Amino acid sequence: MITPPSSTPFSYVLGLADDALVSAQRMGWWISRAPQLEEDLALANIGLDQLGQARNLLTYAGELEGAGRSEDDLAYLRDDRDFRNVWLVERPQTDFGVAMARLLVFSAWQAELYAALALGEDPTLAAIAGKAVKEVAYHLDHARRWVVRLGDGTEESHARMQVALEAEWPYVEELFGPVDGAVVDPVALRDAVLTTVESVLAEATLVVPQVAPARGGGRRGLHTEDLGYLLAEMQHLHRSHPGATW
Amino acid sequence: MSAEVSFDELLADDGRVEPRDPMPEDYRRSLVRQIAQHAHSEIIGMQPEGNWISRAPSLRRKAILMAKVQDEAGHGLYLYAAAETLGVDREDLLDQLHTGRQKYSSIFNYPTLTWADVGAIGWLVDGAAIVNQVPLCRCSYGPYARAMIRVCKEESFHQRQGFEILHTLAHGTPAQKAMAQDAVDRYWWPALMMFGPPDADSPHSAQSMAWGIKRFSNDELRQRFIDMTVPQAEALGLTLPDPELRWNAERGHYDSGPIDFTELFEVIQGNGPCNAQRMGHRVRAHEDGAWVREAASAYAAKQAARAAGEVA
Known about the structure:
Helix content of chain B: 55-70%
Shape of chain A: globular
Oligomer: heterodimer
Structural class of chain B: mainly alpha
Number of strands of chain A: 0
Distance between the termini of chain B: 43 Å
Order of helices and strands of chain B: HHHHHHHHHHEEHHH
Low-confidence stretches of chain A: none
Shape of chain B: globular
């Protein structure tokens, strides 16, 4: 049976793949650096889930493009101007409060996004999202529990969690910005995502930051300076041995 | 064990000692030392391999490596839990690690300089660990023996993954093959030293054997590892860096060259290539996470107080 060509744009799937890939790359930093051993396990698990989502999405993006590019071609052989992820996921996250603030926002957004894609008309995307939505529910729960513990923990943790939140908040709006050929309209996710996040912040006794959004531009290939370093590290070995099999 | 069966009778009968059973204080202390050192090795061992997560050369390899390092964290957890059945707590054991009063396996004081080192660690280091640990599945202390059954299953999987990484490299480009050979050259001798000093110089061995904690001597286990590994190296098409390695039909074992144990003692004394780095990384992670652990305790206490308030 011949499947009719999907009308889903390559660039749209690539953006979602890059969000997951870059987030997984940052998450991997935590393995051996977490505040306790249970958390090394949990963050590795979350990173692995995100990497799995990235691999499925990259493979599918490669099929949509039709130029024969594999997941590794797309991950390792594109420069930063060709990456389509949002700024939220690409900056370093070496503070646990920042990591949890970011994961809260990102997983709340992914939860809504994947739930909508799972019901969509593109069967491949629906299958990928259908698996991912279950994983992301766990990520959101994990982030929620930590944000509440840290927000409502000690005076120090409350202050640090609020600072972390202020640092991440400028990058929230880009998640809802317009994307050409979006299968799920990003703006349509905004209310549900913010409702989820804000309810967690209330439980955590934290205040919703009042900060101006960052400029963004990741969906158009305009990134922070941080992405270049992330990719240099991630890609260097693969690029040092052109055509090699690993 | 029932009250009328003594510790010695139980050992003589190859029985298992359980946490609530009476046991000599020296036996308990020796087990705590060994299990803690094993647990510490698992968590320090996350670092040399974790070093390549960000740079893994394909997404498939990255996923496998993340899962593997995650397994090491899991092994650390089971082992700390096994130690806790002997009346110590993880926090205290970690403190002893961080202050240098308890050790971890010296093998993790070597750097992972290339991607092939990830393969060499899986093949040789996990391979040696399995040879050491399989007999521990029959260790006289029940919780440790049971933890080791699961650990060994996963280690065996890791060993095959390491072999497969090296196999791919050894059959790849000339640069990849050279990378694989270089990693094996650097990890072979340190892997042999994982079995500890020669039997004649092993301070804890005789007592551990008498207690049924240790089942085979250091030299017996080392020989077993060499016998197992030489044919695997041949299958990989890589050489082991010991010109004296050859089959001895009379003994039914491979003969091998002398091991430079001064190197092992240097590394144990803290003068390995990465001792300070591994410890610094571990202590920094622990200190950087202090505020998080304190917050979790404070939150749990608040929740308990709130629940008590609601009940009252």
